[in-house]
Write a structure and sequence with these properties.
mainly alpha, 3-stranded antiparallel beta sheet, two-stranded antiparallel sheet, 9% strand, elongated
């Protein structure tokens, strides 16, 4: 190939060394041109954040401070843009559009996840569900939330009574997140698998452990590992099931606040909004 191209263009009067050098140079130039066109895309593609070094791209700037990189790129190029970092071109979608992308039939977030983690193989021996989970949620559960709401609220109240029903005046809970997880799991199960199975404590415990383990594993792979900020955006906006759970948590907080005054037994806990609140909570029964 290195000899063929210059012979066609310049004839056979070049010596062997010149022919090889010229052929390699032309081949390299063509390869770089094709690679650049592939990275730049066409006029309909989202804008590519400019970079100085062709092979390295924006890797150094991205790895140094992903949050600042995303903020600056969003300001300059909008909520959808592409970056060339860590050896590949990646499309970044802002929080205002990421859920639309995730639930759009032209895209398939579940198939993208299957590239690294095949849930069908683990749970069903490779057999796929006839109805995909995103469609199941968006077409059958989300439009019927009003029908499911009474059941969810009833299960939330039952779970709360199991945890706090015996409280006379007040109680201190070392890890309130466990109670919240239990309430969410029971209420979600009443919708997804029915009220009979949601009363099976073994099933509820297994589903909570599986959800936690899979979530921890997914947070360590792909873009979520390279872009920690996208984890929050995905959990809040991309996953309809996550959105459903968020609504449950809001309902839980509303129910708890109506029945209990919630305070921290140690006022010295940091109030910084950048630090996740940890430690025990005191539930004081309202009169």
């Amino acid at each position: 190939m290195a000899n063929l191209i210059p012979n066609i263009i310049f004839g056979s009067h070049l010596d062997v060394t010149s022919t090889q050098i010229l052929g390699c140079g032309i081949s390299l130039a063509v390869a770089l041109y094709l690679a650049q066109r592939w990275m730049d895309g066409n006029k309909q593609s989202s804008p590519l954040v400019p970079y100085r070094f062709p092979i390295i791209g924006s890797t150094f700037e991205w790895n140094a401070n992903p949050a600042k990189f995303i903020k600056d790129a969003t300001k300059n190029y909008g909520s959808v843009f592409r970056i060339y970092a860590n050896g590949r071109v990646q499309t970044v979608v802002g929080k205002d559009l990421v859920r639309n992308v995730a639930v759009n039939d032209d895209f398939n977030v579940i198939e993208a996840v299957h590239d690294d983690f095949d849930l069908d193989y683990m749970l069903r021996g490779g057999k796929q569900l006839d109805l995909k989970l995103p469609k199941l949620i968006t077409k059958h559960i989300t439009p019927n939330l009003k029908a499911y709401t009474p059941r969810v609220v009833r299960k939330l109240n039952e779970s709360m009574d199991n945890w706090l029903g015996g409280v006379q005046d007040y109680t201190t809970m070392e890890d309130p997140a466990i109670m919240i997880q239990d309430m969410v799991a029971n209420a979600s199960a009443s919708v997804f698998v029915g009220e009979e199975l949601c009363n099976n404590k073994t099933f509820i415990h297994t589903s909570k452990v599986l959800t936690s383990d899979v979530g921890n594993m997914m947070s360590k792979m792909g873009l979520i590992k390279l872009m920690p900020r996208l984890s929050t955006l995905y959990q809040r906006h991309a996953c309809p099931g996550r959105f459903f759970a968020v609504q449950e948590i809001k309902t839980i907080v509303s129910i708890l606040i109506r029945k209990y005054r919630i305070v921290r037994p140690t006022p010295a806990v940091s109030r910084s909004i950048k630090i996740n609140p940890k430690g025990p909570l005191m539930f004081i029964k309202r009169e």
